[in-house]
Amino acid sequence: MTMHTRRHSHFKGLKVINFRFSSKVLQNEVDEAFLNIHVQELEQRLNVTLGPDEYFSIGIQVNRVTRNSQGSKASVPYTESSVKMSRKELKIGKWVKVNVTNMVAEFFRLPRENLAIVVRVQDSKNRMSLVVPHPSSESNNALMPYIEVSLRDNSHKRTRRTIGMDCTENSKEVRCCRYPLAVNFEEFGWDWIIAPKQYDANYCSGECPYSFLQKYPHTHIVHLAAPQGSGGPCCAPRRMSSISMLYFDHDLNIIYGTIPGMVVESCGCS
Question: One MF term in GO for this entry (predicted)?
Answer without folding.
Answer: cytokine activity
